[in-house]
Amino acid sequence: MHVSLYVSDLAATVNFYTAFFGRPAAKVRRGYAKYVLDAPSLIISFVENPARVASNFGHLGFQVETVEQLNQHLEVARKAGLVQREEMGTACCYAKQDKFWVNDPDGVEWEVYYFHEDAEFNDPRYEAEYQQASSQCCIAPAAQVADEELTTAPMAFTLVDTSAEPSAACTPGGGCC
After folding, report:
1. Which of 62, 75, 79, 89 has the highest CB neighbour count under 10 A?
2. Does residue 93 sit in the same domain as residue 173?
3. Which residues of the chain have a pLDDT value below 50?
């Protein structure tokens, strides 16, 4: 996977991500930096362009394969003073997870999590957030798909512009997220 983000201050971004990823950038040039990670498999680049930094961006994240890996990432992030919050044993997105969150210099939020198992409920904290803030919400299935098809069929998603008036799908209790 490749991700490219606009940033306001490349030096601050490189310092943050070097600490967060636990390795230096693979390439740094004027106004540009790139990290190539093996685990998780990710190529992420940063382009210095303060005018294009998006304030309504949701979050990024990666799933680790073991609790031990989560704890290793958490320890590195703690030592660097990056951890914004920790959530152990939470039910988010209808899954039991252990996770922690960090924010980069431009406010991009990263979630690092371990998936334990599916859950039949969401933590009430998340339900309240989704109902109160349309920017936290609004990735809706483009088409309804039968539950049995979800395991075999790729999903299509529609990103909804949260700067416009919320649609019926994004109103409190509207089933968004």
Report:
1. 62
2. no
3. 130-177
pLDDT at 157: 29
CA–CA separation, 114 and 95 (whole Å): 10
| In 30-148, beta strands by DSSP E | 32-37, 42-48, 59-64, 83-92, 95-103, 109-118, 139-141
Q: What is the pLDDT of residue 174?
A: 37
For the chain, the domain total comes to: 2
pTM of the complete model: 0.62
Q: Is 84 helix (H, G, I), strand (E, B) or coil?
A: strand
Shared domain for 41 and 96, answered yes or no, is yes
Q: How far is CA 137 from CA 90, 101, 124, in A?
A: 18, 18, 15
By residue range, what is the domain housing residue 137? 133-177
What is the model's pLDDT at position 128?
A: 55
Q: At what angle do helices 10-21 and 67-79 cross, to 10 degrees?
A: 140
Structure token digits, residue 72:
């290793």
Residue 173 and residue 98 share a domain? no
